[in-house]
Structure formats: C-alpha cells, structure tokens
Amino acid sequence: MDFLEEGSWNLSFAGAGYLALYHVGVIHCLSQHAPRLLQGAHRFYGSSSGALSAISIICNKSVDFCCCQLLGMVKLVEELSLGIFHPAYAPIEYIQQQLRDTLPDDCHILASQRLGISLTHWPDGHNHIVTDFATKEELIQALVCTLYMPLYCGTIPPAFRGERYIDGALSNNVPFANCASTITISPYYGTADICPRSTSASLHELNAFSASFQICTANIYLGYISLFPPKPEVVADISRQGYLDALRFLEQRGLIKEPVLWTLVSKERPAPAKGGCGGFTWDVPHVQLKDVACFEQLAPELEAALKKTCQRDSSVWTRFHRSGPGRALTYLLLPWSLPFEYVYYRSRRLALWLPDAPADLLWIWGQIKGMVYSVFSRTKPGLR
Predict the structure, then answer these.
(1) Rounded Cα distance, 175 and 164, in Å
(2) Domain 10-312 class, CATH top level
C-alpha cells in the first residue's frame, strides 16, 4: 500500500469494549503525524465500540471529547458498588442518549458511504456491513445494534430496519481485515497493522470472528477488562500505548521522516538505510509505555485530555465514599439499599421500554412460535 492515490485505502477498527480508548490514541497519533491517512481514506469500518471510533473521525470529534465520553463510562462503573452487576448499569441506554445529544443533526449524511458498521443478524449469525443511513436516528440504531452484547446488555436484541441485530464483533470483528488496502487497528495482540506487540514466546494464534489473536496471557487480561473495566488510569495507559503503536506503524511504513521512537530509547541518531517509499528507513524499535519517561512531551494534547478526564470529584463525601471505610460502609448497607435501588432502576428502564414494548413483545411471540413449530416438526415423524 503506497497511499499515493487518495481514497485507495480504508481503516478498520476492531471491537474492543472498554478498550476503545486504544483507538483514540491511534487516531490522535495519525492526525498529528499522518493526517492524510484520515483525510484521504475511502471508508472507515468498525464493529462494536470500534464503530464509535469510526464515527468520531467522520464527525471530527476532538480527542478531549472522546476521552471524556469513554473514560466517563469507566468512572461511572467505578462508582457503582457492584460494578457492571449493579442494577443501575445500563450501557446501551447511556450510549444511546449520549449519541443523541452529541452527534450533529447531519451525521447520517456525513456517515453515508464513508462509515461501514458491522452487524450480526439474529438469530442466524450472518454478518452485514451497513454503509448508508437515511436519518440520524437510523444511524444511532445501527450503532446501538453493533454494541449490543447478548445478556451483557440485555435480553431483547435491538432492531434496525425491522430486523434484529447484535454485536458485530461476534461475526466480523475487523471488517475487511484480509483486504490489502485496509489498515486494521486492534488493541489485542495479533496480526493487525496497528496493535500491541507481545513479548511472549508463544507462536500460537486463535482465528475467530474474522480476526487473529495471539494466544497469550496478555490477551486474556485484555479480553477481561474489555467487559469489566479497571480503574480509569489503567484504561488511559492503553490509550497511550495505542499512540505508540500507531507511531511504530507510521515509521515502519516510511510515513514519518524522523525516528521519533528511536529517540525515546537511545540518545544516538540511527544510521539511515535505503528503503521504504522512496525515502529512508531505520530499525524501528518496539517501545512500550514504561519505556517513555515523559509521555506529555510526545503527545501533550492526548496526555492533557487523559489526565483531565481521570480526575475525580474532590468533595468530602466523594473522597469518603472512595476510602476504605466508605466502601466498607457501602457494602454493609447493601442488603438494605440494594432492593430499593433494584426497584427504582428497573422501574425506570421499564418506563423507557414501554414505547418499544409492542414491537418487542410481537418479536418474542414470533420467536416462541418458531421454536414450537421447530420442535413439533422434529417430533412429528416419531409420533406416527
């Protein structure tokens, strides 16, 4: 891929759950050092949370906005006494409302033919890539469908154009990953163009969901925190690593004329060797975040956004709630407080669900009839 002809390449963002902040680091690095890769791309593909990263590029959202939205969700989970198992945890409803409040009114026009959202059709599991959107609400529905993880997000799949869809990562986690003109981005150790490089000696790979993952303990950990988010500071470090991995990709492809990564690990300038796209290349080191003494000098805008969003409320009550005695008191009161919280939040979600209840109940009835007919068809020959 020489990136000479504008519109001859695509970017594909893997589904990553709460690891989507990795994509923010990658996007910020590309916008700083190779803005042409974003401006001249033909289409941006994404599944699950990767689709949110793709739409953020199309709608020209700032790095501060993206960090605030994604880390804001992590901080909300941190405040819940039972984490994602708390009845107040409703990621789909939260994201849907944020999309309605923050996306511009013409987002569907901007996204049509530039955004490709990976969807998994329910119940046959076939993958669909949607690239055109008639209204803003239709675009939001497509994004909600690709984010919907069964059981984790609820029990009734959302609808898009009269059909039920679930998380696009379950059928195609990295759309068009095998296409030579696609730049793939993934926070998991594997074979994506931009991804972390593992120090593990394991050469085994797992090919699943149209993506390749290295079998290592680091990927198991990343898979866990993608659904059960750790502290915001840990997620922020993943974004910083995304910036470094994108920088390594640019240097390896000869798209940067200065050895930025080399200067982070060595004081001596590398001897250039002929290669790359008609220019000079050098041995590009693999730099991990722990190797960078001051990340703020490398990416001041990203660092400022991450630090700003990671800050907690400094009020007396909030500090007490985060302290050891405060958490102990919270868990001691759970047997009394949890039933009331459960009734309150479930009633609230029920009220929000009522407008969609007729269509959802009709769909459930259709599923029940289909299962009964299937069982009857299989047992009928044996009854004769």
Answers:
(1) 20
(2) alpha beta
